Amino acid sequence: MQLVDRKALLQIAPLWRLGFRPFFLAGTAFAALAIPLWLGVLAGWWPAWQPAGGALGWHRHEMLFGFGAAIIAGFLLTAAQNWTGRPGLSGTPLAVLALLWLAARLAWLLGAPLWLLIPLELAFLPTVAVVLGRMLWAVRQVRNYPIVGVLGLLTLADLLVVAGLAQGNESWQRQGVIAALWLVAAMMGLIGGRVIPFFTQRGLGRTAQVPALPWLEWGAQGGLVLLAVLTASGPALQAQAWLGALFALVAVLHGVRLARWHDAGLWRVPLLWSLHLAYAWLVLALAGQALWHFGLLANASLALHALGVGGMGGLILAMVARVSLGHTGRPLQPPPAMAWAFALVNLGAAARVLLPPFWPLGSLLLAGAAWTAAFALFVWHYAPMLCRPRLDGQPG
């Protein structure tokens, strides 16, 4: 561990001491506010509101590049300190990065001119990648270089979206967002493949965690990146049997991973079953996309929302709940209300995926209400932790 000035770090306001604090708080608060705004659009409450790209384009983009990117940044900027033994981003540089994220969100929300929106939007992820990359390069930590690569691909997906916005090309915007969703799935697979078996072993007191199988890890993760590339370039957005076979194969690979991690005891521990259920939504999303490509599922959006709501949303909620406890010096015992929050995000996913054919608008309102309540519970219980010093008096 690199020596740092502990006294100087303790003089920094707690919110700016490490990346998880501002970005977990901002990302989850954004998740709790953005979905009610979107539901208001569906209900016709504010017809005059015109965000960049229109209300649908805003919803699509911001749940990935607003909410998702904030949590990814907070997690990686915090984890990199543990991975490398070097101090993480803190103080004024961290505050400036958070303000950059916020400025881009406001630019989309208020429909700012493209000359302002585009540079604000395209600056955030590359900055995170550079900060992370420098920390990894300093200790030559090759194992984590692929994470920087995924951040680069996410930036290219975002570039495709804003190019579509500038050119009025709806197809480019959709391709970029859905490609980014599969790249987030790749990040879920990469990080989840490390932490889910580890947390399960530690949480249940097992003597050893399930060992990784290199062929399975590379196949599962490579498959998700390939699906993202095929989406960004267009082919995966048209139903084709060979793509159905590819999606099915990747679903099997991730299903095998999940089955290998399973332990009957995890269902007694909310911080564990929430992680496993979120990963199950990823498997379900891949299977749903396979069915759509085979012509057996009418609406591809249902599978994509299984990934976005149940997979991404569920894994984010489970991870921020655990990471925030550990990095604020607290026991790994979340507030009892978080078990309800985990259940609510899964209820929202089920409503969004299973009910639209039978209850179109009502299912969306139910899903949105469950999602909002889940993230509002996190903000209510965790905001004080994120804004106060660690309980053990340590910096960070």
Looking at this protein, list some descriptive labels.
globular; single chain; 13 helices; mainly alpha; 76% helix; Cytochrome C Oxidase, Chain A; NnrS; 396 residues
What's a concise summary of this model?
The chain crosses the membrane at residues 20-43, 63-80, 92-108, 114-133, 145-166, 178-200, 212-233, 239-259, 271-292, 304-325, 337-355, 361-380. With 396 residues, the chain is an all-alpha fold. It has helices spanning 6-10, 20-42, 54-84, 91-110, 114-138, 145-167, 170-204, 214-232, 241-261, 270-293, 300-327, 337-354, 360-387.
CATH superfamily: Cytochrome c oxidase-like, subunit I domain
Instruction: Supply the CATH class.
Output: Mainly Alpha
According to DSSP, the number of beta strands is: 0
CATH architecture: Up-down Bundle
Taken from the alpha-carbon principal axes, the silhouette is globular
What separation lies between the terminal Cα atoms? 14 Å
Unreliably modeled segments: none
Predict the CATH topology: Cytochrome C Oxidase, Chain A
Q: Number of domains in the coordinates?
A: 1
Strand content: under 5%
- Give me the secondary-structure category: mainly alpha
> What about the largest sheet?
none
- The overall pLDDT, averaged over residues, is 95
Question: Count of DSSP helices?
Answer: 13
* Order of H and E elements: HHHHHHHHHHHHH
Radius of gyration: 20 Å
User: How helical, in percent, are the residues?
Assistant: over 70%
